[in-house]
Amino acid sequence: MEPFRLTASQAQAKFKDGSLTVEQYAQSLLDRVAARDSTVNAWAYLNPELVLERARELDAIPPEKRSPLHGVAIGVKDVILTKDMPTQYNSPIYVDDAPKIDAASIQTLRANGALIFGKTTTTEFAATVVGPSHKGPKTTNAHNSKRTPGGSSSGSGAAVGDLQVPIGLGTQTVGSTIRPGSFNGIYAMKPTWNSISREGQKLYSLILDTLGLYARSVEDLKLLLDAFQLVDDEPEEPFTLKGAKLALLTLPTPEWPEPGPGTAAALKKGTELLRAHGAEVEEITLPDEFRSMYKYHLQVLSGDGRVAFLADYYGAKDKMHGSLIDHVENKDKHTRQDQLKAFDELAAMRPKIDAFASKYSAIVAPSVLDEAPVGLENTGSAAFCGPWTAMHTPVVNIPGFKGENGLPIGLSVVAGRYRDQYLLRVCTEIGKVFEGEGGWSR
Amino acid sequence: MEPFRLTASQAQAKFKDGSLTVEQYAQSLLDRVAARDSTVNAWAYLNPELVLERARELDAIPPEKRSPLHGVAIGVKDVILTKDMPTQYNSPIYVDDAPKIDAASIQTLRANGALIFGKTTTTEFAATVVGPSHKGPKTTNAHNSKRTPGGSSSGSGAAVGDLQVPIGLGTQTVGSTIRPGSFNGIYAMKPTWNSISREGQKLYSLILDTLGLYARSVEDLKLLLDAFQLVDDEPEEPFTLKGAKLALLTLPTPEWPEPGPGTAAALKKGTELLRAHGAEVEEITLPDEFRSMYKYHLQVLSGDGRVAFLADYYGAKDKMHGSLIDHVENKDKHTRQDQLKAFDELAAMRPKIDAFASKYSAIVAPSVLDEAPVGLENTGSAAFCGPWTAMHTPVVNIPGFKGENGLPIGLSVVAGRYRDQYLLRVCTEIGKVFEGEGGWSR
């Protein structure tokens, strides 16, 4: 198998047994990028010489001194600061801007031996949903160049889906990590809010923005959580599907849109598979008290965007997308009282969602409306991703299903806050079933 | 009067009528620093040539093109990124570190014509309370070199108090802005949480950290709030003390320490003065439901510090203060459930505090236990500052009183969230009374 096809954990096994060097691995990834980049366009910055130089530095470390993420190649969404590469936010204000500073997440990954590979495309400031004609990325879906990879973490989703890199970093403020995960047929995780430092990651909303993780196996996600020292309260007990009690949330509340046929079929098939493997699956809807969640979410975004984009607005309003200007100018005339009410109501819902989730082994829910839509001009709806961002709970997109046009569709699996490691154990088992029998494969 | 004695607004009036240039003003401030720096030690970085060069650039702008903060000189706490000066956090890890990037607050201030003057001292990462023998700043109180200036915004508090600069930026996670404000006899404001972007400001706690503002007049604070586009919902109606209904909060809950004699006397005298000027003052305590606020505050700090300092811990644990290592290693063995409970309970208290505050024109409360203590090894108790940080409400320290040793003591004035401009109108009137009749003057 060509090295670029390996997951990070598989590549690490070969580094350990001496059958692959980090440099050979990096070269294979670079070859894959070279073959595919003119189609997929996943990279905002990639310097092959820098990658190979770092790879050789890692190879020079004696085996006994290697760190847990030794040689793990990571594509970094271009809203996260990297001291050896520009950070451009897909904004004309920041073309070639390259401050010598690493985000906290990058510091941690480097300290653990990771190979920071390059910067992946994003929509402007990770805060718009528009395509190339409005400065959006030219990135295409990993499995069909006529379709969107999703956004705003477009490049990380597409690059990991297209085997150009095993791990990607994204961010999520509504659905910017989970949506590209489903569209590109990969695992995507939004951990518990503030469980990984967001320092050095472009700010949109303090209470919503979360670092997102992409991989092609649950094992790889666990590598990352361990490096970030995400530890649950509960001990690491094995999870089995047999006897598990899962909640199937087809429609969180009547405020949400109806899933399309691909997602509806995935939910149906997923349920059948889980039951066939011994799990109890109870179809649920969220109680009425959560009905206004999405409305409050958008209200908080609006108030927070007003603050977050003021500095760039002062400096270069003419170079910003209209939706960001609208935030700063408070075009919708939201009051501060509206903003506080939304902020406080979401806060009050969080412990209630935890209590609700604790009645089940996990919640299974749609990740997206359907397979990736045709065209690059719109990155798709994030409606189903929003609840877990607003509620701060960890969520993982598991791939395995396909839509009417053969594109991948994933489902979201959710647990209460700070049960991130537990959630990965659940996803290991559900992932085997969905990937093995769901009907979609790369 | 020597220019260095002017408030920012007074200096701006002279720029406008042509009786002072920004360069002359900057030179006067630099002369003041030169005369006092060996005693006060307020600066972590100050480059006179850079200051004068920027001042000349500002003078070169034609009067009709000048911005609202034209020539306003600002000392910046050295945990806030500045692209033309190092940012060192008082940490040996970051000695001479100078990434080319401005924090969002600095971008906004520069875009408004401010003169970013230099970097002011801080305790390590704005997260310790220790003095020079433990890497704490050598900064002394502006009014007595044997006493602490408070922390963690030690340098900004001392520099503004000592007339070395008219405006300072601080940060507050418990009491790091308000405490140095009281100790150095100046106005200090912690605006509503997240009403000014914290991007590019060292992270300790996402839900607590707030940019802080120092000045020697309320008029100067208003200049800053306007530049940051802090707008209340309510119209700008004049506030008068006559007929105002103020709450006097001598002891928030029994969990708080007793004020010392200086603060007790200030509260007594402040009350008499307010009543003499026609205000009704009602002595109150917070209802029992707020009793655990401080405990929850410390719990959130602990959990958030665990995340915030992980990256530096990986890179250079041996160069960090023990209290920060304890955070990362979770020495107190806090559980995630403890952390969530504290986070959620504080969130639930916030709308209740707003409702409580709305029954009064404002709340008057102690800022600190007493005048600045002798010695530099401890920056003093932040107990009285904590509630307003945890509750996200705006708070202003108003100087005017003095302790048993003649050092300044201020009182805090508080309103509900997003009533920042209203609070300044209240403080204009209370400030006249406290500064005029409180008994302390520079």
Give the oligomer, counting copies of the same chain as homo and different chains as hetero. Answer: homodimer
Percent of residues of chain A in helical segments?
Answer: 25-40%
In CATH terms, the superfamily of the largest domain in chain A is Amidase signature (AS) domain
Residue runs with pLDDT of under 50 for 5 or more positions of chain A: none
Strand order of the largest sheet of chain A: 1-3-2-4-6-5-10-11-9-7-8
Examine the coordinates and then state which fold CATH places here, giving the name of the CATH topology of the largest domain in chain A. Amidase signature (AS) enzymes
Q: Would you give an account of this structure?
A:
The structure is a homodimer of 442-residue chains. By secondary structure, chain A is α/β, with parallel strands linked by helices. Chain A folds into two domains: 3-227, Amidase signature (AS) enzymes, CATH 3.90.1300.10; 245-292 and 341-437, Amidase signature (AS) domain (Amidase signature (AS) enzymes, Alpha-Beta Complex), CATH 3.90.1300. Helices cover 37% and strands 14% of the residues of chain A. Chain A is built from 14 helices and eleven strands. In chain A, strand 10 and strand 11 (408-414) form a beta hairpin. In chain A, 63% of the residues are buried. Chains A, B: It holds the Pfam family Amidase.
